[in-house]
């Protein structure tokens, strides 16, 4: 079962990137994964579509009553608006102080310079102009195929395959860079806004105080403790029952105490012990770490 | 003993520092939503202090606490505050100003080698297109797609061809036409740039093809003795438009070149460096294409005198060349 803790650490190592601030603290940023990137993009895309459709309908409705000159003006507004939306939406949103589009904000992502320095407008422009070959090119290949029917299928398929290399580029490198990120020297991190939950330590004790021996607490390390913390915070009755049972088997006691109560008490005792050891310079990473 | 532990543990940290974190969080949320101008003086003074205090809390928490919730929260908070404290200072509009006064011309100037290559590719395409079509008119349909030719091919009469050069067209729609040309050409130019990433090969193809198309047109009109007239018609906006497309190609080639021959840097670092310069140049290309769209939509349809057309064409070209390549002092930015 060493696999769990090892796997967790390996995952952390792969998704975290160190960024040492001028104050000397490593922020250890977490990279956004491909799924988050995709959902952020889809939100943005749907939003752009909604704006485009809405504006088109609005312009068309308001243009019906006016003369040809008025209609032409509306046409110009539509064309320029479309151009600005297609090229400007991402650029203007990402040069702002939040460095993220609406989609990225919702998912909790932001664009960051890989060097750790400030994100320049040039980088944002470069990464977004590259979108042209990553997204619009595959899309236009699909459109072309639909329009032409099967006449040119081979050529279209070839082009589409080529475009797919760019489309799936982020999956083939460990930093999840798309071509635009590569050229601009940026990457996308996951730094969502989150609330600070209450400390599980020092909560009101219900029922009698449970006392654990050192042997009973020495069974687990930091990884198990933090997994237990997540179980307690999620408070899923089924998961708590499973975890409580396996701990009871391991330490051989307290079959008579309710799951929630037992786990809270065990968490508190285990954390107090591990944190005290931490102060003496002993960090026990997981249960296999002696 | 247990009191000391308690003091130093996460519980003590939370109790003594949590109000500061909340304060910092409120400031960061404000910074992310509004412009820095929305801050009062006190808030601006407090921000770096709160940020450093949160950073030190994070260091303490990492070393003494096993409260995952607390550490995750502080990591997130510190990262968000870091990007604000050390983030972009210039506003979008300030940046736009330096772009026009300095960065644009500088970026284009630094691309001079690629610009020459790009120009050569277009010329080669043009010459090949001209020679092939002159030798065998059948080549014309290969170079020029039917949608673009609009009936201007070798089966058309000289009168019709002449008409296409001087006909005013439906002048009601000029503005709309100009806008359409601008957005369409910009998209093509951006494409030309983005394709540079594939070692510049597709960019080179696009440049040659565009040159070939112009050469084919020229061969068609020249065969009817309308060569000079076509040049006037095409060049009134063409000097600006071709220049822009050549620059877009140069920007693409720059990236392609940096990927193939990165020099002392890693391929990635090299592409990044080239990409940033090229991106600025691309911003300028879009502006140029906007001007070209205006010239093409309005200028060409309204100005039908050949001399005037040539004057505008050469004037525009000189203007761009002077803007990019004339050495300038600091006073100009």
How does this structure look, described?
The complex is a heterodimer of chains A (290) and B (333). Chain A has 290 residues and is mainly alpha-helical. Chain A has 2 domains: 174 residues, no CATH class; 95 residues, no CATH class. In chain A, 62% of the residues lie in helices and 5% in strands. Chain A contains 12 helices and 4 strands. A two-stranded antiparallel ribbon of chain A has the order 1-2. The radius of gyration of chain A is 27 Å and the shape is elongated. The longest helix of chain B is centred in the last third of the chain and has 36 residues. In chain B, 44% of the residues are buried. Chain B folds into 2 domains: 84 residues; 240 residues, no CATH class. Chain B has 14 helices and no strands. Chain B is mostly helical and 333 residues long. Chain B is elongated. The N terminus of chain B is likely disordered. At the A-B interface, helix 3, helix 5, helix 6, helix 8 and helix 10 of A face helix 2, helix 3, helix 4, helix 10 and helix 13 of B.
